[in-house]
Amino acid sequence: MSPNFINVHVSADHPGVVECREFSDSPVVRITPTKVSKVNAYVSCDDLRKEMFGKGLDLDRQWYLFEHIREFCHTDEAKNFTCPKPATGKRQKQTVPPKYRRCIKMHI
């Protein structure tokens, strides 16, 4: 059975080496983790994106925050930062006329 390490230390001085201890007073065990993969694990920083941008909240969620959560923010600054008024108008809810609704009958 492999030991359970509770004390783990990594350092930029020794890249790729993990120093582990089973207990705080145990001797140090040095491990070099390896990844078995067909993919190259080393990626150049030039290949990575410099910035990543999220999609943001959809319009319904923005209106929900503005109408229901904004009141719990204490300051106007917090309200405007956390739950600003959406720039786009509110969407109309699509309702299905009663004659097009389907009822599912369950027989037990």
Describe the structure.
- The chain is α+β, with helices and mostly antiparallel strands and 108 residues long.
- Among the domains are: 1-34, no CATH class; 56-88, no CATH class.
- It has helices at residues 59-69, 76-82; strands spanning 7-10, 18-21, 29-31.
- A three-stranded antiparallel beta sheet has the order 1-2-3, with no helix packed on it.
- β2 (18-21) and β3 (29-31) form a beta hairpin.
- The model has no long low-confidence stretch (mean pLDDT 82).
How would you describe this structure in keywords?
alpha+beta; elongated
Question: How is the topology of this model organized?
Answer:
Blueprint: E1 7-10, E2 18-21, E3 29-31, H1 59-69, H2 76-82
Antiparallel strand pairs: 1-2, 2-3
Task: Put the structure in a nutshell.
With 108 residues, the protein is an alpha+beta fold. Helix content is 17%, strand content 10%.
Please bin the fraction of helical residues.
10-25%
Shape by Cα distribution: elongated
Q: Please provide the ordered H/E string of secondary-structure elements.
A: EEEHH
Query: What portion of residues belong to β-strands?
Result: 5-15%
Structural class determined from secondary elements? alpha+beta
| Poorly predicted tracts of residues | none
How many H/I helices?
A: 2
Mean pLDDT: 82
Give a short account of the largest sheet. Answer: 3 strands, antiparallel
* Main sheet: strand order: 1-2-3
Separation of the first and last Cα atoms: 53 Å
| DSSP strand tally | 3
- Supply Rg: 28 Å
